[in-house]
Amino acid sequence: MTDRSLYIAMTGASATLRSQASVAHNLANANTVGFQATLNGTVAAPVAGAGLPSRVATVSQTLGVSAAAGSLTDTGNPLDIALQPEHWLAVQDRSGGVAYTRAGDLRINANGLLTTASGLPVLDQAGAPVTIPPNDALHIGSDGTVSIVPQGQPASTMANTGRLQVVAASTRDLVRGDNGLMRAPPGATPPAPAAGNVLTTGVLENSNVDGTAMLVSMIQLARQFETQVRVLHSADESARSANSLLSSR
């Protein structure tokens, strides 16, 4: 019986630590543009093996990514975009593959490439990086079309330079990697580009992390961990007492 209580308390404490790490990660990204909170929980996991199924462990499990909308901030910056719910901006990841993000704080680098704030190239409808020629003004339409006033031309002269690749996909149908980017699951068909109004210009979507809720969760998890550690100490003391009684006979 002592062995059972030790094992259950140990797996519970381990799962609690993993849940605390997930909550800490969410809190660290409370001010990250477009970040979506990780949903984490603990589940019962029967221990497989010979004999009766009498042992049940506790494991930490990532349940997905929160699809809740973050608050919007009006910046007036023509390179800032906020995507419609369940829409994603296609970017080129570090390995050259396609990934998706909701971070809309875009930049133009020294080579004229349109990138995310972290330096990832933004892709167009054909899957190629978007390039921005020298210009006197730039506008991103609600359908993702990028228009500019070429450098030295009158303000009435507008030229289209491409269209951002924005896809529509449910959050639960995508998988988030360690770098925070979303991707289609292995073997799944990549989401198709979305049509119509897919974004708003001059606006940024903030992180959807609820800081207050995360702090409360952190306190609850800390108390759970303390309780589980006390159970471990109590079980250890009971085992020592039993061994002492047996050795004295």
UniProtKB/TrEMBL annotation:
Belongs to the flagella basal body rod proteins family. Residues 6-36 form the Flagellar basal body rod protein N-terminal domain. Keywords: Bacterial flagellum, Cell projection, Cilium, Flagellum. Residues 201-245 form the Flagellar basal-body/hook protein C-terminal domain. The basal body constitutes a major portion of the flagellar organelle and consists of five rings (E,L,P,S, and M) mounted on a central rod. The rod consists of about 26 subunits of FlgG in the distal portion, and FlgB, FlgC and FlgF are thought to build up the proximal portion of the rod with about 6 subunits each. InterPro entries: Flag_bb_rod_N, Flagellar_FlgE/F/G, Flg_bb/hook_C_dom, FlgE/F/G-like, LlgE_F_G-like_D1. Pfam families: Flg_bb_rod, Flg_bbr_C, LlgE_F_G_D1. The keyword Isomerase does not apply. It comes from Lysobacter yangpyeongensis. Residues 84-147 form the Flagellar hook protein FlgE/F/G-like D1 domain. The lineage of its organism: Bacteria, Pseudomonadati, Pseudomonadota, Gammaproteobacteria, Lysobacterales. Its main location: other. This is Flagellar basal-body rod protein FlgF. It is found in: Bacterial flagellum basal body.
